Amino acid sequence: MASFENKSIVSIRDMTRAALEKVVSTTAMVKKDGPKGFMEGKTVAVLFFEPSTRTRLSFESAVLKSGGTVFGIADPAASSQSKGESFADSIRTIAGYCDVIVIRHPVEGAARMASELCDIPVINAGDGPNQHPTQTLLDLFTIEEQIGKLEGIKVGMVGDLKYGRTVHSLTHALAMFGNELSFISPPSLKMPRHILEELEKLKIPYHEFVSLEETADLDLDVLYVTRIQKERFGDPQEYEKVAGTYRITLDTIEMLGGEVKIMHPLPRVDEIDVEVDDTPNAVYFLQAHNGIPTRQALLGLVTGGLK
Ligand code: CP
Question: Which regions of the chain are under pLDDT 50?
Answer without folding.
Answer: none
